[in-house]
Amino acid sequence: MNEGSTPQRHLRSEASSDEGPSLRAIPFGKNGEDVVHLSRRQRLQLAGISTQVHLPARMILYREESAAQWVFTVSRGVVKTFRDLPSGRRHVTAFLFADDVFGLAESGHYVNSAQSVTPVTLYRLRLDALTELLLHDPELHMFFLCKLAHELRRSQRHRIVVGRRDAIGRMAMFLRMLEQRAHEDGRRGGIEIPMTRSDTANYLGLSAETVSRASRALERNRIVTFAGVHAAKVVDRSQFEKLAAAV
Amino acid sequence: MNEGSTPQRHLRSEASSDEGPSLRAIPFGKNGEDVVHLSRRQRLQLAGISTQVHLPARMILYREESAAQWVFTVSRGVVKTFRDLPSGRRHVTAFLFADDVFGLAESGHYVNSAQSVTPVTLYRLRLDALTELLLHDPELHMFFLCKLAHELRRSQRHRIVVGRRDAIGRMAMFLRMLEQRAHEDGRRGGIEIPMTRSDTANYLGLSAETVSRASRALERNRIVTFAGVHAAKVVDRSQFEKLAAAV
DNA sequence: CGTACCGTTGAGCAGGCTCAACCGCTGTGG
DNA sequence: CCACAGCGGTTGAGCCTGCTCAACGGTACG
Lengths: 247, 247
Hints:
The structure is a homodimer of 247-residue chains. By secondary structure, chain A is of the alpha+beta class.
């Protein structure tokens, strides 16, 4: 998909994308808010060491093992991180949405590959500059710590999803994850599924065929309806939640 | 918590347990060492806000959802974090070894339960005191950030293991993980398996029976020999590595 | 010495994978 | 303009393997 010609401005409830990187995290302690955002000052500071980039869908951002110079934050769109295994199998490690961060390296090298799923707006931060900034800004530093802890919890929840052995349950949990994420971003209504079926399969640890069959099973049981491959709607909420409950 | 009657002193190659909490992490950048330890000064600082605790095996440290006052570090022994699901199924989120940290909360509440697998020596740090300390010590703060990133990568690797569908391969990857961990701790020779078969099953997303069968299959194929349930030895290294390679 | 739990082994079942074919869409080149 | 190839998605048939249920041995502990 060709970005560039149509800037396609869009409104988000908070944190418009031209005020610098935006992030969202959940603090450790129970004081104050449950969800915290970067302050205006922090965003401006990060803006100072970052450059905004617009990319079309299906663009490789970096490959695993390559030298890691940058950390990325998502402003708009969806990114996936993944690892290709020798067998040709592909594990999608995570989907990253607005206000997420990715690209944290290990000993100077990326551990996963990253690719845009939709057209995206990202901020690219030099790793060394970010490190320097964090060392001089304890509040921001703590924010990143919380963000990383949040990411760790998400990874653990992902493990729970993959741990289920029924395909329909995994699919339901996946849809619920997308729905929840959309809610957090202030979008209601039907579930938007930005990724392809095979992305979903690689995320859920299923074959593409099984994802397809699970989707049809959800439809057959009148729990979810699909409008194309990129949109779904829950029609039987109680059944849906029952399926999506961690078993 | 039932303090242990037998303190059971023991020697470790580095970082003896009475000099305060000890941690190990992998930095983001490629400058200097691949693995970094807490400095003596940092350990003493952490010691100032922590208390050492000795616990017997199979002791619950905290339950998910309970109020989180403490963060823990492991000095000796093995801890598991887990979640119990409505079906009675149990997911082991992680095994924690020496120089690991766990108990990072979300909005003041633990997200998993934690239990000692073996007799353990832990350091218990008050969350608020740790936060305060981190805000005033950028180096230590960065260290924790790296540690958390490291934990995130481990969780992602865990997801890869669980994503395999052959039991024998998962078992091999698990044993390799234990072996690698032992190497990092400076222990060579046979693989020590501190956890029970059902712990292993809950970690690998398999039934206990399947773990048992996979172990016997490894033995039947002359790849690994077991001496009891808590010790194994690789006898066919190339076959073992072939199995344990991420498929 | 009984009890309880862990680990092992067996039999049968079920659900997801593999292989294969087919459809619809898109982009390309004759 | 159309033929064709490629790809993503769907559907079907059959196999494979891990789960479930069940029984049993060993061991730790009261």
